[in-house]
Amino acid sequence: MIRGIKFVGVPVKDQDVALEFYTKALGFKVVTDQPFNDKQRWIEVMIPGAESGLALFTPEGQEDRIGSFQSISFWCEDVFATAAAMKAKGVVFTQEPKTEAWGSAGVFRDPDGNMFVLSSRDKHR
C-alpha cells in the first residue's frame, strides 16, 4: 500500500547553486548528497519536520524541464510573513502573495527559474 511521497524531483542546472538556495534561502536540510554518475550527484533535501522531500536532480533528456512551473505547492501558516522572510533571504516572487476566496498564495522561483506556489492551508491566512 502506498504510504506517502518520498520525494519530488526538481530539475536543476547547477546542483551546487540549487543546494545552496534550498538549504540557505528555504531552510531545507540535506538528507543525501552522493555521486550518481559522472555528470550529477543524487541530492535529496527535506523541509525540517516534513516527511516528503525534493530531489535536486535532472534525469538525462529532461533538461527542457529546467526553469518551468513545477506543480508543487509548499504550505505554511502565514503566506505573507513567510514570503517576507523568504524575500529577506533573496527569494524572488513572480506573483506576490494575495488572498483569494480559497486561501492565500504567491509564486516564487529558484535560481534556475523553476516556479513554485507558496500557500496556506487555512483560507483566512
What separation lies between the terminal Cα atoms?
Answer: 34 Å
Helix-strand topology string:
EHEEEEHEEE
CATH architecture group name of the largest domain: Roll
User: Looking at the chains present, what oligomeric state does this protein adopt?
Assistant: single chain
Approximate shape = globular
How do the strands of the widest beta sheet line up side by side?
Answer: 1-4-3-2
- Which radius of gyration do the C-alpha atoms yield? 15 Å
* Helix proportion range: 10-25%
**Quantity of strands, as a count:** 8
Helix segment tally: 2
CATH class of the largest domain: Alpha Beta
- Specify the structural class: alpha/beta
The number of domains: 2
Description of the molecule:
The protein is α/β, with parallel strands linked by helices and about 120 residues long. About 15% of the residues lie in helices and about 40% in strands. The chain contains two helices and eight strands; from the N terminus they run βαββββαβββ. It has helices spanning about 15-25, 80-90, and strands spanning about 5-10, 30-35, 40-45, 55, 70-75, 90-100, 105-110, 115-120. Strands 1-4-3-2 form a four-stranded mixed β-sheet, covered by helices on one side. A four-stranded mixed β-sheet has the order 5-8-7-6, covered by helices on one side. The longest helix is centred in the first third of the chain and has 11 residues, at about 15-25. It is globular and about 45 Å long. The model has no long low-confidence stretch (mean pLDDT about 95).
